[in-house]
Amino acid sequence: MEPLLPSTGRALLHRVAAEQSSKRAPSLAAAVVRDGQIVWSGGRGRVAGVVPDADTQYRIGSITKTFVAALVMRLRDEGKVELNAPYDKYVPGTAFGDVTVAQLLAHASGITAESPGLWWERTPGVEWPEMAERVGQAELKHRPGRRFHYSNLGYGALGELVSRLRGVSWLDAVRTELLQPLGMTRTTPMPEKPHAEGLAVHPWADVLLPEPAHDAVSMAPAGQLWSTLTDLARWARFVGGDTGGVLRPDTVAEMREPAVVEDGEQWTGGYGLGFQLARNRNRKLAGHTGSMPGFLATVWTHAESGTAAIAMTNTTTGVDVPSLCADLIDILATMEPPIPVEWTPLPEADPELLALTGTWYWGPAPRALRLLHDGWISLTPITGGGGRASRFRPTGRDTWIGLDGYYAGETLHVVRRPDGAVSHLDLATFIFSREPYEAAAEIPGGVDPNGWQAL
Q1: Are 367 and 440 in contact (CB under 8 A)?
Q2: Are 221 and 68 in contact (CB under 8 A)?
Q3: C-alpha distance from residue 103 to each of 69, 145, 326 (Å)
Q4: Is 341 among the domain residues?
Q5: Which domain holds residue 179?
Q6: pLDDT of residue 323
Q7: Which of 191, 233, 286, 408 has the largest count of CB atoms under 10 Å?
Q8: Domain check: are 26 and 147 in the same one?
């Protein structure tokens, strides 16, 4: 990949420098990823007397949750977890056993935001049996599924689920199933040099206070991990769909779909199955923010353009790391927009599939069926005014499954006449014919025998 223009690098550095200076961050490290590679990274401030770089560890807080969610989705894909099953099926004996695994993943369970007891982020943790004993009816704040209510406790519970089903700690599962296969050697549960120290900055004076760092034990799945720009760049690629084989790309795409939103119909923030979501400048970003005493971090990925930004700082509050990452993505997209992928013809085309392309009619409304790669097809409206558009992946000789849009999960069948010729398409009971309301296509309800008439 060609290096960035000097003007782009300067603009990115200026944005990071302005954030570090104006928000009084002891140190700040950031990177931008494009097409799987770090194309720019920079640091400001000092860690142990030197400028932080791509190998400097920071605590990443709730970005840890995305690793736990990936493990749960691996279990789902293996058939060992049902997302709509109650938590009690896998970890019995809790006060919130009737909430589903999916509700826990998406922070829609309604259980309390923080674990009962002392402020868990600043005190030594306890094992799961003791934590579960502390949780009673008072910790059930909302009807399950009613609304988004962020819950650190919920991810402590998911970590226990992973441990029960894998027979090892959630952390060992993260290491063996995610970190090692992806080559993320500097993501650890406790800091390893070189690493930043967690600090608080006095609100009215330029002085610092060290923050404590403990093993959160049962709450560790909510925010224990430390990492670097280099490792999180690899994780950003994972979030964007470059999974390295540890999870199916379509499963990661499912995790990026909004399950709940924070702010109503015109949502700017929401949550998928383990990924935090945000809208910024008409981009849908996926990833997660992180906050622990002494640290702030964010990974934002724009999957459509293969671009991501990571930023980490060692201050308890004050630095708007999510907005910084969104700005870094915008700077790169504005100053050096990605070059479109070169168009090339398909290497081969099945004549039967080629014969299906062209215009089909849903009633009087025309749709275009196009042949894509690997036998995929798309069905999209031809005229203006909107309509239902979807892509479909083949599941058999004459069947496809919808991947997105209105027909996601629905099956498209090619219906043939006795002689093998194509009669029509059947999609979720809707009939698509080669002519508007073609009588030979067996349109439900029949077609007036007088045909089309002038008034």
Answers
A1: no
A2: yes
A3: 12, 7, 27
A4: no
A5: 6-335
A6: 97
A7: 286
A8: yes
